[in-house]
């Protein structure tokens, strides 16, 4: 399952303020333009992330506030996730400076002081970059691992909304909040996540006032199929009266079901 299905669902339930600070998915054209600017294909984990959200809207740490770091790299939690457009601007800036910035390093986040988080396009590894001495600090073996760690920590009650910050962001706790318990994973959870993500990505519109529980029940059964799963899901979405309109095509639904796992 894509970490973004879990992250978006958790944000919707626990930190909608942060979810609204994340951009809609990057378009295929935007990703193609970024690959042209970079001069090579983007790693699958990076593509997956930007197909979920094209970075953050405001200059706040949003999801980076709760990523796992060491004590010496806590400053990496202050990063703003860059959009595809801002990545190109940052690359152009670094190249114009003549700093010999390695071409395999793709900046994906930055702070106000010039520090960055980048993905190594050759290995997929994620690392933090200190602009003062060009020191490199590994963060995760790839972007998907970093985000799966975040999703796991959310599920284990180790992530909270930072109520003291002026802008919505997340923080990672040392231990679960007092009184918290492990969430029960219901059988229909994948179906509810599917509908929530499709709504958030504007892939469907629901019929106002219509009970969606029969839709959830049918999707729950369809998602458990081992064959013809996409065909059944599409059929349900097209025919169920709770769905007013389906905007996603078969390829987009295929990609979303792959995320769902």
Could you explain the architecture of this structure?
The protein has 261 residues and is of the alpha+beta class. It folds into two domains: 3-172, SMI1/KNR4-like; 189-260, no CATH class. The chain is built from ten helices and nine strands. The protein has helices at residues 3-14, 16-19, 28-38, 44-52, 84-97, 143-155, 189-200, 213-223, 229-239, 250-260; strands at 80-81, 105-110, 116-120, 126-130, 135-140, 159-161, 170-172, 204-206, 243-246. The strands form three sheets. The protein has a five-stranded antiparallel β-sheet with strand order 1-2-3-4-5. It has a two-stranded antiparallel sheet with strand order 6-7. It has a two-stranded antiparallel sheet with strand order 8-9. Strand 4 and strand 5 (135-140) form a beta hairpin. The radius of gyration is 19 Å and the shape is globular. The chain starts with a helix and ends with a helix.
The CATH superfamily of the largest domain is identified as SMI1/KNR4-like
User: Could you give the order of strands across the largest sheet?
Assistant: 1-2-3-4-5
Beta-strand fraction estimate: 5-15%
Total beta strands: 9
Supply the CATH architecture of the largest domain.
3-Layer(aba) Sandwich
Just give the CATH class of the largest domain. Alpha Beta
Q: Compute the number of helices.
A: 10
Task: Count up the domains.
Answer: 2
Query: Radius of gyration in whole Å, from Cα?
Result: 19 Å
SS-based structural class? alpha+beta
| CATH level 3 topology of the largest domain | SMI1/KNR4-like
